[in-house]
């Protein structure tokens, strides 16, 4: 519940009810709207009740969606003061986070560790990516050269066992002295939980090798890192040893005894040099030695029994520089801080010597140049080692580093210095929250709090604070910045393009970043509070308990002439105004919560409600609970379903959707909530397995995804069917609009008019029991796709998603799918409202209006009983317009309710109101456009060079493809048409491989086609000679591969006999 400031006054007060939806209030916070909101009832709002006490809400914007405000009727306008409307503890916590964020060294990440309160991402850690902290962690591991954040490391052994295929890991940072990593490439990357971050132990160091340094590390530093070794702690140092055990010592090739092989032995009494001492996972001390040409590990004691000593140190013996095995020379009293300090000094010395080595010239100018380069290199090293040493950070600490300065920055916006500072409004905060989410996608950050501070601040400063350098000074024209600010940086251009559409957040860069830190802190608190909050409104609970399964979606008449200020229709049965409650406030402020905050809580609830699956004793066998469904796709091709001799019932029976419905209609809801992940299934969760009749394919994930894709195609197939049937627009009916009777093309699509011509509607009007059952089954499939990380490419409009999240509908939502009907309603309302009777035909058409309307499928319905014979006159026009709008916006309500009931069997639908309609659509349907850069970011390479010509040809061709062709490509390689919205949602990486055996051995690579494995999201490319050849072969493959038949060879005609 938000804090309120109460003041006693003698003036009369009014209760103002405003039913405007939050997304329609983006103009909140301006002076004009403050005047409208506080000085009068200019929009026709209902007023009632009086009191002696006035409660002033803090300035949170003009959108008061279903909110009760108490304000003075004759009170003064709210002063534009600079008082802090938020509690002091929030500013203090945000200030501490802002200070850490400005250092740009901390990264929030999940882990494999978990607790009862953690979500599926595991225990969250704030990893320190600063070089000195990573160097300290490397010293604790006993590494010879440090592993730093962003470095790529090859893992050849795991638990002492030599891996069949080495894995590649990315170093994330350090936490509590340990070095943390994430497996990026390998079998573990596709197993549940194995791809989450974990830390290395000293016993894990064997088998680790550096693959590549972080690209952001300065080149001079990279060269020095390979030359300057780390020092070693005393616990890792070896020495001269004498074998004292009478049976001698056994040399093994690995640190772990049980996973290594015997490669030699050392007789008793022999002295050896141990270059390293290390404790293995069984807590046994082992020494690394080299004896008679054999290198390996020997134990300090006998394992078992009385654990007798095998060796002893030779008194007075010291290691030579050659015996130190490449580490820095040992220092007396070595500790981690001293070793890190010594390494830093050696780095400075090495860089100084490397920079001054060409200075042997006698020229003074050359000497000055070399001295300058040395100073620059040392300054670059200092800034890299400690970001706080930079001049920019020091200036910020001096001028805006205090809590008071941060509070001022986070509370106001200077608006470019062209007017008095203004408080942040609710609408501006919502825009900033959305902008932060978009910027995180642009920078490739998995979380908003992991946004890089310095690069983003630099772009915002150039765009908003420096008009002389091409910026806009806070209120200028951003188009100037698009052409003059870092034109070659696509990231900067994308950030600035985002600013162009969100002008309410314009201010200085420091103000935006400070307010962002405040929102990040707020989301951190809200994420912990979400499990304790309820999103259900009282009227919805009352409707479920007494009336029906759900309450009719509210409809607002805002935007229609003569209806400004009227409340929403269908808010609740018998309610004159919505009762204030926490759930209503949460829904109003839902846009302040980042999508990642909601998704974290959502995923935790999904994990807690997943049906457990008992594993088979053989890890490669499927559990008994995971059933196999036989699907005949041969007879379910769109061409066969669209043949003239097929009725609607027969099309449904032969379709993949109908086959699934027959098999699964009797399954309990617990089966739909199953999310089994098998070994070797590429990270694909599932509730059942698929067997395609007549296709030689094994279901390791690809066929399972293909089923959902074909269901989507069947539901939204209209053009092929109408062309095959020869049906014209005059003969359209509900059964003849699409192959299946659930969806119909939106009027804009049918008329090829207006926007959103790709959208479909749930069948409007009254529906049969069978249709509602099919819609409920569709809801279950949608719920399963969400649980299993799939995206069903359903092109459904906001008329579908708004009722599911509890957001009201308006005339603009009808305009998005039926432009002609919306314009007609607006013209009718405008004509009646102005009382301007049109003459001629228009006047006749106005007089011929009756209480009827056409639905989205073209059917005519009565708005009132016997509406066809009841004409609309001047006294009833408001009732008519209200009835038409409500009917059109709710025309699919029966099937929307059925879909929601299906979702409720699989998903926690009570939590859907915390999402916006757009967020829910992205959660269920993913992103329509295939983002090539995002796909490239999530790509790994196997047996092929990333810079090989055919790889570069592929990316160029994908960029040049049409959107529909890119979608076909994604289906060809992954059996899905929609990509996840961000890199963190990818269950597995896209794998580009070298040519297969036949293409590899052939000298004519241009004759071979690319080969895809949808189960493993991989593509094998022959070494094509040119980009044109690759384009030709790739387009031919993606357009002529409808079946999956490369796994096994069939010896029967199963599935083809029915075709």
From TrEMBL:
Q: Could you tell me which residue ranges the HECT domain spans?
A: 685-1059
Q: Give the compositionally biased regions (Acidic residues).
A: 17-34
Where along the chain is composition biased (Low complexity)? 1-16, 353-373
Domain of life, per the record? Eukaryota
> Which key words tag this protein in UniProt?
Ubl conjugation pathway
- Lyase in keyword set: no
Q: Which InterPro entries match?
A: HECT_dom, Hect_E3_ubiquitin_ligase, HECTD3
Region Disordered: what ranges?
A: 1-64, 351-373
Question: Which molecular function GO terms apply here?
Answer: ubiquitin-protein transferase activity
Q: Which residues form the active site?
A: 1015 (glycyl thioester intermediate)
Basic and acidic residues bias: where? 35-45
Q: Does the keyword DNA damage apply?
A: no
PANTHER family annotated for this entry?
Answer: E3 UBIQUITIN-PROTEIN LIGASE HECTD3
- What's the protein called, per UniProt? HECT domain-containing protein
What organism is this sequence from? Octactis speculum
């Amino acid at each position: 519940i938000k804090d309120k400031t109460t003041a006693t006054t003698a003036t009369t007060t009014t209760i103002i009810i405003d039913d405007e939806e939050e997304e329609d209030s983006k103009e909140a916070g301006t002076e004009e709207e403050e005047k409208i909101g506080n000085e009068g009832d200019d929009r026709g709002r209902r007023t009632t009740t009086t009191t002696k006490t006035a409660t002033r809400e803090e300035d949170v914007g003009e959108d008061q969606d279903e909110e009760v405000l108490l304000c003075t009727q004759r009170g003064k306008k709210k002063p534009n003061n600079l008082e802090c409307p938020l509690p002091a503890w929030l500013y203090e916590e945000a200030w501490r986070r802002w200070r850490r964020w400005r250092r740009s060294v901390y990264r929030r990440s999940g882990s494999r560790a978990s607790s009862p309160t953690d979500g599926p991402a595991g225990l969250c850690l704030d990893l320190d990516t600063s070089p000195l902290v990573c160097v300290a962690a490397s010293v604790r591991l006993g590494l010879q050269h440090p592993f730093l954040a962003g470095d790529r490391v090859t893992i050849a052994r795991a638990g002492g066992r030599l891996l069949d295929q080495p894995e590649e890991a990315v170093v994330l940072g350090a936490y509590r002295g340990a070095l943390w990593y994430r497996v990026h490439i390998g079998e573990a990357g596709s197993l549940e939980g194995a791809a989450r971050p974990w830390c290395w132990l000293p016993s894990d160091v064997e088998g680790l090798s550096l693959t590549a340094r972080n690209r952001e590390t300065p080149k001079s530093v990279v060269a020095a890192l390979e030359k300057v070794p780390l020092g070693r702690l005393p616990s890792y140092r070896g020495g001269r040893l004498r074998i004292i055990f009478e049976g001698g010592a056994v040399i093994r090739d690995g640190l772990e005894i049980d996973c290594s092989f015997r490669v030699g032995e050392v007789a008793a009494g022999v002295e050896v040099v141990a270059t390293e001492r290390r404790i293995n996972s069984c807590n046994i001390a082992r020494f690394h030695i080299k004896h008679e040409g054999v290198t390996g590990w020997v134990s300090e004691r006998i394992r078992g029994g009385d654990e007798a000593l095998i060796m002893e140190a030779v008194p007075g013996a010291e290691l030579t520089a050659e015996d130190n095995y490449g580490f820095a020379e040992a220092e007396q009293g070595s500790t981690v801080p001293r070793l890190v300090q010594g390494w830093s000094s050696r780095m400075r010395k090495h860089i100084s010597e490397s920079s001054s080595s060409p200075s042997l010239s006698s020229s003074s100018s050359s000497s000055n140049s070399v001295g300058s380069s040395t100073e620059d290199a040392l300054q670059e090293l200092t800034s890299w080692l400690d970001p706080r040493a930079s001049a920019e950070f020091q200036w910020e600490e001096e001028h805006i580093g205090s809590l008071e300065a941060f509070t001022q920055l986070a509370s106001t916006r200077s608006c470019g210095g062209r007017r008095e500072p203004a408080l942040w409004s609710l609408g501006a905060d919502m825009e900033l929250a959305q902008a932060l989410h978009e910027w995180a996608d642009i920078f490739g950050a998995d979380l908003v709090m992991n946004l890089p501070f310095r690069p983003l601040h630099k772009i915002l400063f150039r765009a908003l604070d420096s008009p002389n350098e091409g910026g806009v000074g806070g209120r200028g024209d951003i188009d100037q910045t698009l052409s003059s600010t870092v034109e070659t940086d696509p990231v900067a251009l994308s950030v600035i393009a985002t600013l162009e559409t969100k002008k309410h957040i314009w201010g200085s860069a420091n103000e935006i970043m400070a307010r962002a830190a405040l929102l990040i802190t707020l989301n951190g608190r809200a994420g912990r509070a979400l499990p304790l909050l309820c999103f259900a409104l009282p009227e919805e609970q009352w409707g479920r308990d007494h009336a029906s399964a759900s309450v009719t979606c509210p409809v607002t008449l805002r935007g229609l002439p003569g209806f400004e200020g009227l409340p929403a229709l269908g808010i609740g049965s018998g309610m004159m105004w919505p009762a204030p409650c926490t759930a209503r406030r949460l829904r109003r402020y839902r846009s302040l919560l980042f999508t990642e905050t909601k998704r974290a809580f959502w995923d935790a609830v999904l994990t807690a409600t997943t049906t457990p699956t008992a594993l088979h004793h053989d890890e490669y066998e499927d559990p008994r609970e995971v059933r196999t469904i036989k699907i005949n796709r041969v007879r379910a091709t769109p061409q066969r379903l669209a043949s003239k001799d097929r009725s609607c019932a027969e099309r449904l029976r032969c379709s993949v959707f109908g086959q699934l419905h027959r098999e699964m209609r009797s399954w309990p809801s617990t089966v739909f909530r199953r999310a089994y992940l098998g070994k070797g299934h590429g990270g694909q969760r599932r509730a059942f397995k698929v067997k395609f009749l007549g296709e030689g394919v094994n279901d390791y994930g690809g066929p399972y995804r293909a089923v959902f894709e074909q269901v989507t195609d069947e539901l939204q197939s209209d053009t092929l069917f109408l062309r095959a049937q020869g049906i014209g627009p005059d003969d359209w009916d509900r059964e003849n609009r699409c192959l299946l009777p659930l969806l119909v093309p939106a009027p804009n699509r049918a008329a090829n008019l207006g926007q959103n011509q790709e959208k479909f509607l749930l069948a409007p009007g009254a529906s049969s029991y069978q249709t509602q059952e099919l819609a409920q089954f569709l809801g279950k499939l949608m719920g399963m796709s969400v649980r299993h990380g799939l995206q069903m490419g359903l092109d459904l409009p906001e008329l579908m998603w708004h009722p599911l999240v509890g957001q009201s509908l308006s005339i603009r939502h009808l305009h998005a799918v039926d432009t002609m009907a919306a314009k007609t309603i607006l013209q009718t309302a405008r004509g009646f409202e102005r009382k301007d009777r049109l003459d001629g035909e228009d006047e006749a058409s106005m007089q011929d209006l009756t209480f009827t309307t056409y639905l989205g499928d073209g059917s005519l319905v009565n708005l009132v009983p016997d509406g066809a014979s009841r004409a609309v006159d001047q006294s009833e026009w408001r009732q008519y317009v209200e009835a038409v709008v409500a009917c059109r916006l709710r025309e699919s309500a029966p099937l929307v309710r059925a879909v929601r009931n299906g979702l409720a069997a699989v998903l926690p639908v009570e939590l859907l109101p915390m999402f916006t309609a757009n967020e829910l659509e992205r959660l269920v349907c993913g992103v329509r456009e295939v983002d090539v850069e995002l796909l490239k970011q999530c790509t790994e390479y196997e047996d092929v060079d990333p810079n090989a010509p055919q790889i570069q040809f592929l990316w160029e061709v994908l960029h040049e493809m049409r959107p529909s062709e890119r979608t076909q490509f994604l289906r060809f390689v992954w059996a899905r048409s929609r990509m996840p919205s961000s890199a963190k949602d990818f269950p597995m990486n896209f794998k580009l491989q070298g040519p297969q055996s036949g293409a590899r051995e052939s000298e004519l690579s241009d004759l071979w086609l690319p080969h895809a494995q949808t189960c493993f999201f991989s593509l094998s490319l022959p070494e094509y000679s040119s980009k044109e050849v690759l384009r030709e072969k790739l387009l031919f493959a993606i357009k002529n591969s409808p079946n999956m038949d490369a796994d096994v060879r069939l010896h029967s005609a199963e599935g083809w006999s029915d075709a």
